[in-house]
Every structure is written in C-alpha cells, then in structure tokens.
Amino acid sequence: MTRSRVDAGSLYGTLNLLVLQALADGPLHGLGVARRIQAGSRERLQVEEGALYPALHRLERDGLLEARWGTSENNRRARFYTLTARGRAELAREVDRWRKHAAAVEWLLEGR
Amino acid sequence: MSDGGGEDRVERERVQFRPGGSPDREVGDEVDEELRFHLEARADELVRQGWSPEEAAREARRRFGDVEAVRSRSRSLRVQAARRDRLRRGLEAFRQDLRLAARELVRDPALAGLVVITLALGTGFATALFSLADAVLLRPLPFPEPDRLVYLWQYDRATGTVREPAGTADFYDFRDRARSFAGMGMFRSRSGSLRGDGTEPRSLRVAEAHHDLLGVLGVQPLLGRGFTTEDTEGDAPATILLGEGVWRGLFQGDPAVLGRTVSLDGEPVEVAGVLPAGATLALGSAVDAWVPLRMTPARATRSPHDVTVVARLAPGATLEAASAEMTTLAARMEVEDPENRNRGVRVESVGEYLRGPTARTVMVLQGAVALLLLLMTLNVAHLLLSRSVARSREAAVHRALGAGAVRVAGRAVLATLLLSLAGVVAGLGVATLLLDLLSPLVPPAMRVAAPPVLDLRVVGFGLLLAVLLAVATGLPPALGALRTDLRQVLSGARGEGGQAGVRSRARPVLVAAQGATAAVLLVGAALLGTTLLNLHRVDPGFRAEGMLRLTLSVPATRYPADFSVFPEWPERIGLMAELLRRGGEVPGVEAVALAANHPLDAGFTNSFRIEGRPPDPDRGEMTTRMVTPDYFAVTGLRLLDGRLFRESEGAGDPGTVLINRTAARRHFPEGDALGSRIAFWGPVFREIVGIVEDEHVHGLRATPPPAFYVNLLQIPSAAGELTLLARTSGPSAGLGPPLQRMVAAVDPALGVLEVASMEATVAASLERERFAGTVVGIFAAMAVALAAVGVYGVLSYSVARRRRELGIRLALGAREGQLRLGILRQGVTWVATGVLAGLVVARGAGRVLESLLFGVEPGAVWVYLSSGVLLVAVALLAALLPARRASRVDPALSLRSE
Fold first, then answer.
1. For residue B724, how far is the Cα from the chain centroid?
2. For B731-745, what is each residue's pLDDT tens digit?
3. SS3 call for B140
4. What is d(CA B839, CA B862) in angstroms, rounded to the nearest whole number?
5. Which residues contact B885 (CB under 8 A, 6 or more apart)?
6. Average pLDDT over all residues of chain B
7. Mean pLDDT along residues B495-501
8. A79 contacts in B (CB within 8 Å)?
9. Is B724 within 8 Å of B739 (Cβ atoms)?
10. What phi and psi, each to the nearest 5 degrees, are found at residue B554?
11. Residues B723, B596: contact at Cβ < 8 Å?
12. Do B77 and A57 touch (CB under 8 A)?
C-alpha cells in the first residue's frame, strides 16, 4: 500500500485542484481536507499535510475560499473552509484542465 | 509530559507572550492555533489507533512536515489576505458614506443649493481677485532686477505738477553729475507711419530712445542689435527696432527682416533689430517700434520738457539715497540756471509707478473679498450647524450602533466636502467670468505682456480653500454630534443640556459677526457709491454725449513745421481747413473741430508774461489748449465773458487768446482779464478776448488748471498728432468709419491712431472708481442679504426650539405682543452689537479707501449712521416673521408635541 502512494504535492498544479475538490461537498477544516484527499483517492494520494495550509491560505486570499472558526467533531476550535462561488467556478475549470491534461498524457502513452 | 508535549507548551507560551492588538498579530495567532489543532487532533487520532502519546505526537509532526516553514508562509499569506480585506471593506464603507452623504444632500436641496451658491460666489471672487493680483502685483516686471529701475521725474512747485518729463539738457546734467545710478537713459514717444515694401502704411507709436536705454533696462533684442552712440549722436544711417507685435503682425515674424529698409514717415530706415514685447512695459504705454533719439549734449535744451528719464540704481544705492542726492542736485541746478527755477526732481520706482493706482484698487477689492469670504464661511457654518442639529440624533444612533467616532465625524465632513467641491467647481466658472470683467483694471501697458489668466496655482488655491472650508465648517458640527448624549437625544429633550447650550451661545456670535462684516462692506460701498455719484455730478466743462474723437498722425515729412517761417505753414493750415470742410459734410455730423488735445487730455503747459507787469517766476505756467474756432460749439464749452475766436481770423490777423475761469480768477483777480495781453511763445503779446468755463482736462477728480486757448488756424501746431472732434446729431457710435474714410480721402498718408467716443473716454477715466464701487456694492448687497438670512434662520430655529416654553408662557397668560417683542429684541440686539463693532472696524479700514474717494470723507458720519440704521432695520424685518410665529404658538399643540 505504501509503495503505491504518490506524493500529491509533486504533481505540478494539482494541489489546488485536490483542495478545491475536497471542499466541493461542504466545509472542512485543514485536517479534514487532508483526510478527504487520502480517503477520496483510496489512500493512493499522499499529501504532506503541512503543505495544505499555505495552499488553503492562498486560495482564501484569492477569494476562492472563505474561512470561519467553528467547532470540530471532538469539540475543539477549528478553522473551517468553504468554497465561494468563484472557488466553485475555479474548481470546474481545474477539473476540465486536469482531464484534458490526463487524456493527452494517456494518448501519448498509448501511442508508445 | 513527553519532550514533544514540552516543546508544544513552550510553543504555546511563546504564542501567548506575544502582545496582541495589531490585526497582523492576531492573524499570526490564528495561524498558530490552526496548526496546533491539526497536530493535536492528528495525534489524538493516532492514540485512539493504539499509538503511545509520544509516538503519536512525533508521527503527527512527521506527516505534517516542516512546521516552521508552513507557519511563516501561511502567516504572510493570511496577513496579505487581511490587508486586502481591510482595503476592500474601507472602500465599501467609503462608497456607502459617499452614497449616504449624497442622499443626505439631495434630501435637503435648499440647503445644498444655498451652500453651493454661497461657496461658488465666495471662491469665485477670491480666485479671480487672486489671479488679478498675481498679474498686477505679484508677477515681476520682465527686466533683470526690476526693483532697481526708477524714473526721474521733474516737478514744478509753481504749478504744483508732480510728474513732468525732463528737458534733454536736464537729462545730461542728471547723468553726468549724479552718483547714485549705474546707468541712465531717456525716451520720448510720438506717432509714426510705417510702411514695409508693398504694404499699406500703418500708424504706430514710436519711442525715440537714447542709446543707453535698452542697456539700462537690461533688454536683449530678440534679433539684431540695440542702439549705439553712432545711431543717436553720429551720422549713422537711420535705423529702427521693431517691437515683437509689429514684427509678427506686419512682417509675419520673418527673421530676414533684419537689414531690410522700410519707410517711416516717408523716410527710409533700416531695420536693425527686434525687441521683445515686454520691453515696452517700462515705458508706461504701449510702443510699437523704437528709433534712436538723435541728440547730443551740445544740442540739448532745458525745454520742452518731453523726455522721460529711466535709470538703474547703482549697486548699494537705495531709492532714498538717490532721492536725497537728486534733491541736492536739483537745488544746485535751480541756482545755476533760471530756467530750472522751482523745479525739483522726484525719483520713483518703475514698478511702483506702473502698479501703484491699480494696486490700491486691487487691495481694496481683496479686502472686500476677504470680508465676503468670511461672511460666506460664517453663513455656511451657520447653515451646517442647523443641519447638524437635525443630524445629531442620527449620528448619536450611529454611534450607539457601534459606528466609530472617526467614521461618524468623517461622514459629516464628507458631506461638507462634497458641497464645497461642488461650490469650488462652480466658483472656478464664476472666476473665469469675473476675470473677463476684471481684466480692464490692469493698465494696458502691463496687459501687453501678461494678461491675467486662471492658472493651475489658482485652481489649486481654490481646491485648498474648499478643503479648508469643508474641515472648518464640517468638523465642529461633527464633533458636536459626537458629544451628543444618545439618551438625551432619543428622549426628545431638545433645547436643554450642555451640547445644545453651546450651540445657542455660538449662534448669536455668528449672527453678530455677520452683522459686523455686513457693516464694514456697507460702509465701503456707501463711500465708493457716493464717490461715483459725486464724480458723475462734476461738470466736466464739456458735453460728452454725441461727441466722437479721432487721433490723427500728421507726418512732418508731408506737413513741414519749420519754425523759421512760423506761422507761415500753408500745408498744415490747408490740411486743417480741408479736414474741417470735408468733416462737416459727413452725414450725421453737425460740426467738427480740431485740437491739439481732446477735452480729457491735459496736453502741455507754458510759462507766460502779462503785459505791463514785472516777470514773476512764482506765477507758474498755464495749460495750453490749441483749438480751432468750432471747438466751443463742438464740445459745448461755455463762454463766460467776452467773445470766442472768429472764423475770419487768420494767420495774418492780430493774435487773440481766451483764458479759462480759473486763470481769470487766479491771474486777473481784479476782473481786468478782458483786454489784457499776454505772451507765451516768444515776445509776441496777444489780447485776451474771452473767458470760458473750466474744462476738467486732468480728469473729473482733479481741479481744473489755469489754461489759455489759442486759435490753431492762427497758430498752427508743430505736433505730429492732431485730434479731430465731431459733434454728431444722433448717437456717435456709427460715425467712426465714415470719418476715417473722410480722413483717408483728404490724405492717405494721414494715420488714424485712435477712434473713441467722448462718453467712453469719460467712462474709461472713471474705470477704477466704477469698478471698485460696483464690486463692493454687489458685495455689500450680498452681505446684507446674508445677514438677513442669518437672523431669520437663527430666530426661526430658536422659536422652534422654544415652542414648549413659549406655549407654557402663553398658557400662563403672557400676551402675544410680549413674546413677539422678546423675539424681535433678541434678533436686533445680536445684529446691533455686531453692527456697532463693524462700524468701528470700518472707520479704521476707511483709510484704505481714501485715495479712491472723491467729495466724501472716509469718516463721514452720515455714512456710518445710515449704514447702521439700514442694517438694524433689515434685521428687524428679518426677525418679524419668526416673531409672528412665536406669538402664534398654540399652547395645547406645542405641549402635546413634545
């Protein structure tokens, strides 16, 4: 299992996509985003958890995310992130870009 | 606790140690908390999966990566985000405030309109006057070290003249004997007719200049060279320097004009250079071209007095020292030469001479503008103060709902700033209009180089004024609103409590200050208005309506004036006869006359002897009027005794002369003028055959000088200029062109230098007084209106505020009349106090006006009395309506309404 994991941060430009996608179903705190990425990729994608925070804060600064303090599942104060309307639009664009990119790489590999 | 936990605690302590407060710090704390949550929640999760707490903490950290790097990166991102957020919120708040302020202004359009109009007029007048002062007073003359340039005038103690040109011999004496000057030049001006190759002859003003003049002024020719000793004292061929205007106009600014030969009065002259337009400024009148003044010390004479002497003070010499030296020199010259008897020398700064009269007028107007501006500021402050009462409830609510003090105050200033900016923009329009009206005030010679314009500095001045006014008038009400106690406002306790009390004390002071300002302006307007009336009542000695004057240039080349055969000048006498004959035939012209000078032009003076009396140098000189016999019919100058000139009297007949009333009274107090004989040019005695009324040749304000009249047809003038006067049957306006055509038909070589109606000439001579009077009059009217509005507003407000009290008093049996009287007394007392103070100030300020006044003392009691009475009466009228309202208060209603 450990061998098949991929460092998500090393895939160029995908971290934003992963973060936005993780938030597509509702607000999460930073740890929640990390868990969602792992779970959603069937444990195949591994994020260096610390790297999530600058990504979250950059998306927040750019108005794609909104943050609010709330209470975590075990009753602690945590910062929850939500997609803004602009964030949702950006997610759609990122997904589209990723699919085109992946398809192109796939064609290339098939042609080998 | 494990090592990891220990580290954690240290971390926490560091976080808590950081002093809070700054938003950036708070963001940092948040990041710390967020990361801590992550690490701790992850560790907890691992503990639940069976890890030991120490290992769980270590594993959480491992998965997290470099905590410090993440923290610092995230912090800077969050700080950026927070800043961006604050900016966005600030802009949003500002937009909201702006909308609020605009809505508020729209809600009270009368108030907004009043404030904008008030400010537009105030800043408009202020900026226009500033532009004018800049052009007239502040801009230096276009010469190096212009403060060092002086005129050397002569004056004559016997005739009381203060500024006379010098004789050429005097110039050489001044130049060679005075030590206070670095250089000295002289000039005289005349008219001439210039013709380039193939162009029409053009009449222009020519300055004959000494070769040192341009050097003394420090003027560099635009092209070519100035004059040399060869030009003025040697036999060099005739040269001319063109003024910039003529060069551009007549020669299209062609540099190849240098060295070309043109014709001046029919003589060939070579163009030696071109002078900048500003060079003419020091001459006191516009000059189109310059020629050398051909003169040597050997040929120089004491009279005529026809050259203006310009000098530059020597380094280190003061004007006072130069004056003292010239006084000593003049006294010595008086002893040396009897012709210099009674003559002194006056040293006057060129700038002072050119700017003096206008400077005084501008200063008076600036004073008036400052007062008006003060009045307007008071009124605006007052209007806004009324507004702030309405707003204080709103502001107090805003405060209570958590709006910052700065924001509440800022919003109040913003509304005022919007208003004042609107006012200033409108004011710039007003200023542009005014400047067109004001420009004629600038002496024509100075207008040539520097017409007053609205420049950027002036616009900046206006904007600065707007901001200052906005803050000065917007802030105090805003601060007042902040001090307001919410409970007091909401409980409806109006008119009581400290804050309202401050205002009710401020209001009477505002009203009194308005009264004072209005009083000062009213007194000024009354003094200037009386001056104008007095000047219009002056009998000028002639009838200006329906009289036209043309100034003709008579070239000496075609009309020689050779004094060896005087007065046998057939060309000149023939020309005059022809002009008179053909002029009389022009339709619409009733009569024409010729004269050396028009009735408002003093011309020159001559010394004279009375037959049978010993020569008396203290008798002084008489103004010399050279006119054709029709002059009296054309001008309407009345004969008092004896007879006028006869048409039949020609050059061969015995010479006759007329004198004016002043001359008869001064020199023939026994009434023996008629039949007496006087001599003025050479030894010939001529008989006084008539006495005529005084003409105000020095202007309406000046006392007419003693004058004698000679018949131009008998004694022709050698001057290069001649004035043609026409009496018209209807309005004189349309007759200029036909008369000009008539002159051209008589001889195309004659130039027409100027065409003007005598009415316009009289009006122009009163320009300064009329202008100052009109402006100050308008200001005074505005001031009175503003004061009335002020009294009305304050009393209305006071009545509204005291409705409850008035109602109670009425209910308790007070009579309506009593209440009414109380209100009236209140208003009138405020205004009267202010007016009294204003009159005292006006008495002091009246001295500034003194030089503009005519026939009225700056301290004339009736002016102050009537101004005071008028203002108090206006205040009374303005108080009447609020007073009536006070007595109409319905006790029952007013008690219930609170």
1. 34
2. 777 888 999 999 989
3. coil
4. 12
5. B796, B799
6. 82
7. 40
8. 30, 33-34, 37
9. yes
10. -115, 100
11. yes
12. yes
